[in-house]
Structure formats: C-alpha cells, structure tokens
Amino acid sequence: MLDELYVAFQTSLALHWEFILALDLKTFLNLVRSFIVGMIFAYPIISSCLGCLWSASLWSLIVSQPIIANRNDTEYMKQLRKAGKAFSKLIKEKKCGPKLLRLALHDAATYDVANKDKPWPQPGGANGSIRSNHELREACNVGLGAVLEEFITPVKEQVAPLVSWADLIQQAGALAVCECGGPEVEMKYGRVDVPDLKAIDTPVTFELPASETFNTEELPEGGEYEFEAENHLKKLFKRWEMDEKDIVAVAGGHTIGSKKEREWRVDKKGHHVFDNLYYNAIEKPTPEMTIHAVDKVLMDFWGFSNFHFYFKKYQVTWFECYAEAHKRLSEQGCKFKPAEGIRLGEYWEAK
What does residue 199 show for φ and ψ, rounded to 5 degrees? Predict the structure, then answer.
C-alpha cells in the first residue's frame, strides 16, 4: 500500500514538473502575476471570513462560561479579593494562621454524608453555623467565638459586607495554610450562610475523643485509648466521605498547632511554618511537646502508618493530598449562589 502511494506521488510530481518546465518565461511570469493579483483581491474576503469564524468561536467561548447572576457578583468578587488582602495581613502581623485554620475546618466539619440528600442546610458543612451559640458552646469549639470576633467580624464589617460569613471563614482558613508556606487551596466561593442561627440544632459530634497527654520520655504501646482514637477517626472521616489517606493528610495540618505545646515549627520571626515536620515530630517529640492518642494512632496502626511514612518523606505529595482534602471538606454540603460557585482564579489574584 505504501509503495503504491509513493509511486503515485512520484508520478504526480513528475507531471507537474514537466508542465512547469514546458512553460516559456513570459507565460510563467503571467501566471505568477495573476496569482498575486488574485490574492490581493481575495485577501479582504478571506480575512473577513476568518474574522467571522474567530468572533463566533470567541462568542461561543464566552457564552459557555458560567454566568454569575442574582446579585452584584462583580462587587462580591472585588470584596472577596479585598478580604483576602486583609486576612493575609492579619496572618502575618497577628500570627493567627492556626486559629483561622481551626475555625474554617470546624465550621466545615458539621457535614454528614448521611444527610447528603436532605434539604439544605441539613447536610451541614461550611455554612457559617459556627457562629451559633449551639456550636460555640461545644467543648471542641472552645475559643472560636473570640477568633470570630477578633479576626472575621472586622473584615466583614469594614472590607467585605457583601461576602457571606461562610466564604470569609473558609477564605481565611485557606490563606492561613498558604501564608504559612503550605499549598494553595483552590476552592470555589459563593457559599450561602445558614439563614437562622437560632434554629440550628445539628449535632456537633466531630470533637476528638478525650485525649490522653503522655510523657514524651515514655509513650505507652497499644491500649484501649489507641483503639478508641482509631475507631473515632475512621467514623468521623467516613461522615466526611474521606478515607485513611485523607485522615492522615488533614491531620498534618496540626503542624501549625493553635496551642503553644502543639507548635511544631515556628521561624525566627515567630511565624508558623506549614510543612511536614508534624509527621517527624510525633515520632521523636521534644520534652516540651505533647503527644495525644490521635497522633500516636497515625504512626502505629496499619492503614494510617503507610501514609504517615510517605507524607513524612515526601512533602510535595502531602501538600497535594492535603489541598485536595481541605478543598473537598470546605465545599461539601454547601449551597452556592450561583449554583456553580465563583472562582477567584490564581492565589495572587485573590490577594
């Protein structure tokens, strides 16, 4: 088959070459001139057709993009970006990254896959319900009311009154990770706040089991506390539609602990550093650090320990897994307006 095509090509080339050689110089020049004149007259028509095709393609591209409607979303996005700048400044100056991250994750942590098909806001999730007395009085949320009042409320009132509480809380948490040296969490925005804080009665069952604090010189092996912690973690993350990999990845966020005895790494200027030191530190803690049952489970129990080892060794892989899990948790159960959400684009745009 290839041989036949090659012979046909050679024959065609030979015929055309013979035709060109048979022409005298005058005839050849007339042909060239006719071709140039034809192209001059045809150019406007060709370029016009191509322009129409390009415009049609561009218009198709524009109309195929999500349309942001139902409120002044251009201003909404502007205020989101201003809020991002304000949070970035607060994180650098007030060193409040750990507190903002804890607030964001705890607001999202009410999500329960068992309620996934129920009317919103029954599925829970990042809907601003963390502002309710019902949630703030829970032991797992101690101190978060002060975080709301000190860092979120001023930004809401002074910079971004149009932006929902839910969006501001999640944006602050994502920026806390990035400003401390962690990965960019590219979530979508446009979350709708839960309408009635007084009506919230969603069970707050995401607190960790009562943690035992161990002397770092002698950590007990095995025991009921570890099995309790393991079962609790698996049950908890199953509610969030997450597996063992996600459990270990999200736990690594404790690398910027909000308590002094849980600060795994702080630079010379006192800024928290979001890196994978947590996985190394829980294996060889310093005397001033405290280790809890849920920490020990990550390195002792099969199913967790393999991911613990991998994230300890490969920070880039952990960053990818953490960012994906954080994004998913921050969006599950949420109601967005518009339904497809709002994308801010690259991290530097949000700033």
Answer: -90, -5
> Which is nearest to 188 in space by CA: 340, 350, 348, 342?
342
pTM equals 0.72
| Exposure class string for 328-337: b at 16+ Cβ within 10 A, else e | bbbbbbbbbb
Number of domains forming the structure of the chain: 1
The pLDDT value given to residue 3:
54
pLDDT tens string 304-343: 888 999 999 999 999 999 999 999 999 999 999 999 999 8
Q: Which of 77, 128, 146, 141 is nearest to 350 (CA)?
A: 77
What is the structure's pLDDT at 62?
35
Provide the H-helix boundaries in the chain: 2-22, 25-64, 73-94, 97-108, 133-136, 144-147, 153-158, 165-179, 224-239, 244-251, 277-281, 293-300, 305-313, 315-331, 347-350
Top mean pLDDT of 66-80, 176-190, 289-303 is at: 176-190
What pLDDT score does 24 carry? 60
d(CA 168, CA 68): 19
Q: Which of 341, 277, 338, 279 is nearest to 305 (CA)?
A: 279
| Cα separation of the two ends of the chain | 61
Q: What is the CATH number of the domain that holds 308?
A: 1.10.520.10
Would you say residue 138 lies in a domain? yes
What residues are labeled active site?
Answer: 106
Residue 279 near residue 315, CB atoms below 8 Å: no
Range of the domain at 239: 73-350
Q: For the segment 98-110, what is each residue's pLDDT rounded down to a tens digit? A: 999 999 999 998 8
Cα-only R_g, the chain: 30
Which residues, 6+ apart, have CB-to-CB distance to 251 below 8 Å?
278, 294, 295, 298
Instruction: For residue 264, give both structure tokens.
Output: 């795994």
Q: Is residue 18 part of a domain?
A: no
Residue 59 maps to a domain: no
Two tokens, residue 35: 């071709």
Does position 295 have pLDDT exceeding 90, yes or no? no
